[in-house]
Amino acid sequence: MAETSPPHPSDIFLPSPDAVHRSRVPDYDGLYARSIADPHSFWEERARLLSFTRRHETLLDWNPVTFEGRWLVGAQGNITHNALDRHVAEGYGTKTALIWSGDGGEEESITYAELLERTIRFSLVLKKLGVGKGDRVAIFLPPTPAQVVAMLACARLGAIHAVVFSGFSQAALKSRLEDFEPRVLVTADVAYRRGKTIPLLETARKAREGAAAVTSLLIVERKGDSPHTLLPGEHLFSELRDSVRHENPGDPEPMGADDPLFVLYTSGTTGKPKGIVHMHLGYMLGTFATTREIFDLRDSDVYFCVADPGWITGHSYIVYGPLLNRATVLLAEGTPDYPDAGRHWSLIERHRVTIYYSTPTTIRLLMRFGDDWPKKFDIRCLRILGSVGEPLNPEAWHWFRRVTGGHLPLIDTWWQTETGMIMVTPFVSTPEKPGSAGRPFPGVQIDVVDAKCRTVPPGETGTVVIRTPWPSMFRTVFRDPERYRKYWTEIPGAFFSGDSARRDEDGYFFFLGRVDDVIKVAGHRLGTAEIESALITHPHIAEAAAIGKPHELKGEIIKVFVVLHPHAEKTPPGHDEIKKHVRTELGAIAEPHEIDIVVSLPKTRSGKIMRRVLKAREMGLPEGDLSTLED
Ligand code: WTA
User: Fold this and answer.
1) What is the pLDDT of residues 573-597, one digit of tens each?
2) Which of 21, 286, 380, 611 could form a disulfide with 421 if both were Cys (CB 3.0 to 4.6 A apart)?
3) What is the residue range of 184's domain?
């Protein structure tokens, strides 16, 4: 949905001189030039703002053969010490760390001292279940304070967490558990969505069947009023919490350059999701510095990011980045149109939100509900707008800016699960162009290239690559080093992002979408192969192909083409049945929007489905080179 023609010169928005003057990055061009001439000093300066029990000897040890970037070698420290203990020790214990607004309107406000206390208690419970440094814990919780606390508690113990989005189905959770093999799975009795009760525990129990590595299922009680019959290996958090009340809190575990912080599963080009491994110290440095400088954080800010900590945006820009910066974070459960389309605007008004980091799909949804909704609320408290996850089309860009006062900086940030931190972004002090995510974060060398890794001229479309290591870079793909290598060998000489973009004469990036078989539906990342694998587990479906089709609201929607088994042709499954099947296999976010039952799929002679041809046909475009087509 990104616009491909260059913006009109009048479509360039200049920051106010005051914003530039007050900004943490008043001279982007100068800072960027210096950071590239000497990236070492740039990152050293930022690392110095963090606290370690031992300082690093080497900032970066880059191995161009294995593509491993070891950051802060020799250092010891812990991200929760920097995100919690340090702030409390410096006298900010009474500052609000987390404001939580539940799906049903219930609210909770938690100070830094309380968040630390809860994190310690949770870590003692995990310890009681045998969790220590290097152990793995899967977290299957809705966006609630418990989810944030569970993540921090793992980090404090040096355990590796894998948060699984609570909207995933039992089968999707199971496949992640089978790969990750956590010792403990943390879940809740129920979740709520749009007022409906979702039996999360049931899903977790089913997913756990057969996942032998999971020795304990830890249940956080959300409902709290119904007595639970526990199965073997199941524990109620409330009971264990009481039993550890008198235990010594202990210090956060010292972590080094080679210690992972978490694994987060994301979609790639095969049917199997990949576990992106992020490292404790490097990730801390990257998320700390980007949050501080891009969102220009001040102590008086109330920062609202609409993501779910089940995705990377929630990891980096709800939990770790903002807490490292001592921010007050608003976490909202539920959807932006429940109970009505004023959900976000009313939260902004009530909590005096100053920074609103949203997504294109949310913005377009709110735009559909019209100007009257934002007008009903006093949202003059806002000072910065943000967007992430998919291209923000100029129409939505203009609307978002207009209904929020017409003068606020709109920070459209580009990054990925793999990068861990924002890589391309405007700053409050830089001119903005609607439809553009701005320019690279200082210290980041990102380029638009052809297949031989040569920079393409301004205005031309190419593939986005990252040429040099960055602190919060992922270290590997869990249990799959070959898949990690592929990122660095697809286009020799750089990290292959999977995105295409063009840059204008001023170096502004206009991202155009994925060039691989990954699609983005309402900002959620899905692999076409994952959807196809789910489809062919249906007893009547022989073959399947999935494509992303442009959609006004969601950016892309899923369209699938299925070929039935001969035995099923007389009683073909209905569209609803096929949709339901995918929902059960993967979750509601992967449900196909459109289904075509066809007699065959276009394939290459070697049997590979040509999704490109299906997509071109679907969109009425030329089908391109068909010389490899079998039939
Ligand atoms: C897309 C989300 C255009 C892109 C943080 C990328 C964007 C993928 C933007 C990563 C943006 C993210 N403009 N496209 N501002 N931000 N993307 O791993 O295709 O869920 O490769 O991380 O989202 O998705 P992921």
Assistant:
1) 999 999 999 999 999 999 999 999 9
2) 286
3) 103-243
